[in-house]
Structures are given as C-alpha cells and as structure tokens.
Write a structure and sequence with these properties.
Pfam families: GerE, Response_reg. Keywords: DNA-binding, Phosphoprotein, Transcription, Transcription regulation. One of its GO terms (molecular function) is DNA binding. The chain contains 11 helices and 6 strands. It is of the alpha/beta class. The protein folds into 2 domains: 134 residues, 3-Layer(aba) Sandwich (Rossmann fold); 66 residues, Orthogonal Bundle (Arc Repressor Mutant, subunit A). Strands 2-1-3-4-5-6 form a 6-stranded parallel sheet, sandwiched between helices. It is globular, with a radius of gyration of 17 Å.
C-alpha cells in the first residue's frame, strides 16, 4: 500500500471539457501538497502525458474520448503501481464503480458532488487512503451490489480481524497497524492474509471495498468509527 506522504504530489488532470478542466486544476492546487503538472483532453493524449510526466496522482474523467478512463487505468496502472488514481464523472453506473475499484482505482467522485467533497477525496488520496464519495457509495448500496455472500462473511471475522480491516481501509500500513494494536508485523501480515482469503480479496483496494460493503467503514458523510490512537 502506498504510504501517506507530506511531500508535494505531482498530479495530471484528464478532462475533455476545457472549462471544467481549468476549474478542476484550479481546485486541486488549493489542496496543500498538490501541484498540477499537466492536462489532457483526449484519452490517447492523456496516456502519453502520464508516460511523460510520471505523476503521483491521476485525476481522470471516466468517459474520455478516444480512450476511456478504465482503459487508461488498465494500461497505465499496472506499470506504475505507486501512482494513485481518482476517477470523476457525471454518469457513473454501479457496474462502472465496481470495475474501477476492482482495477485498483483509489478514489471515485461524482461530478454532482460539492467542491469540498472533491478536495476531501484528493486529501485522502494524497495521504495514502482511498475515497468513495457519498453519491457513488449510495449507488453501490441502492443497486444491491453488496453480495449476500460478502455480508455473511462479516460474521466469520474475528474482532481483531475487523480492527485490522478497518485500519487497512483507513490507509494505515502494516507496520503502523502493528504499532497501533501492539503486536508484531508478522501477526498483522497473517491477519491480512486471512482477511484476503475470507473476503476473496486480492489487494488492499479490494479489502477497502469489502470494508465499505459490509459496514466496517461507514460511508462518507456518516459517523466514522472511533479513530485509532498510537500507543503512548
């Protein structure tokens, strides 16, 4: 999992509408520690820009002309595992949201969200966490994409596994979780392996999705679980 950083994150904005692209870039620069280093309006141009700039964060319109956002994520993401992606669109479908999550997209924000929600998402992405805006989270819930099999698996998790799952979903590293829970790194690695097996997850991103689906992590806008504190 990408570690949270206080360093400046270089970001590119991939959006086909000029006015909105300018607004998104301007908004992003108001988030401390984010610097916009490039923009593109078409998918293939966007992919070339990413290859040239090697950004830390890629904000992309889901339905770019030429090459859509899912294809950009599919082609660029595996080659650059430290790059973090945040998808934006006004036309998200539940299936599209799920596909983005399965491909490892770190953040998803509907264009019907407020500017403050987008900034919140950017801060979370920069810090190493994931972000699903309230609009998209509601789409997933309302479409019944939460499978009964996953929900039932929640009951198979031990209290400690639930604690570890919550911490993973909140963006903490294995080492940080071990310090929080006052156990060894190997113990946390074992818990993560068990969680992936029980929840049929292949990555931290998929564990985060499962945490939202089964209610370990509250949807944005709802009350959050009590925050972890470092042992004194």
């Amino acid at each position: 999992m990408t570690q949270p950083t206080n360093q400046t994150s270089r970001m590119v904005v991939l959006e086909d509408q000029l006015l909105l692209r300018d607004l998104l870039s301007s908004l992003a620069t108001t988030v401390p520690g984010i610097m916009v280093v490039g923009e593109a309006s078409e998918g293939r141009q966007a992919l070339a820009l990413c290859e040239e700039e090697k950004p830390d964060i890629v904000m992309f319109e889901m339905y770019l002309p030429g090459l859509n956002g899912i294809e950009i994520l599919r082609q660029y993401g595996p080659k650059h595992p430290n790059t973090r992606f945040i998808a934006i669109s006004s036309n998200f479908t539940p299936d599209a949201i799920r596909e983005l999550l399965e491909l490892g997209c770190h953040g998803i924000v509907s264009k019907s969200s407020s500017a403050s929600k987008l900034k919140e998402g950017l801060r979370e992405i920069k810090s190493g966490s994931g972000y699903l805006c309230p609009v998209c989270a509601s789409l997933l819930r309302e479409s019944h994409l939460v499978s009964n099999s996953v929900a039932k698996k929640k009951n198979r998790l031990s209290n400690r596994e639930r604690e570890v799952l919550q911490a993973v979903a909140e963006g903490f590293s294995t080492k940080q979780i071990a310090e929080m829970l006052e156990v060894s790194v190997k113990t946390i690695e074992a818990h993560r392996a068990n969680l992936m097996k029980k929840l049929d997850a292949r990555s931290a991103v998929e564990l985060t999705r499962c945490a939202f689906e089964i209610g370990i992590i509250e949807l944005p806008g709802q009350s959050k679980p009590a925050a972890y504190t470092m042992p004194g």
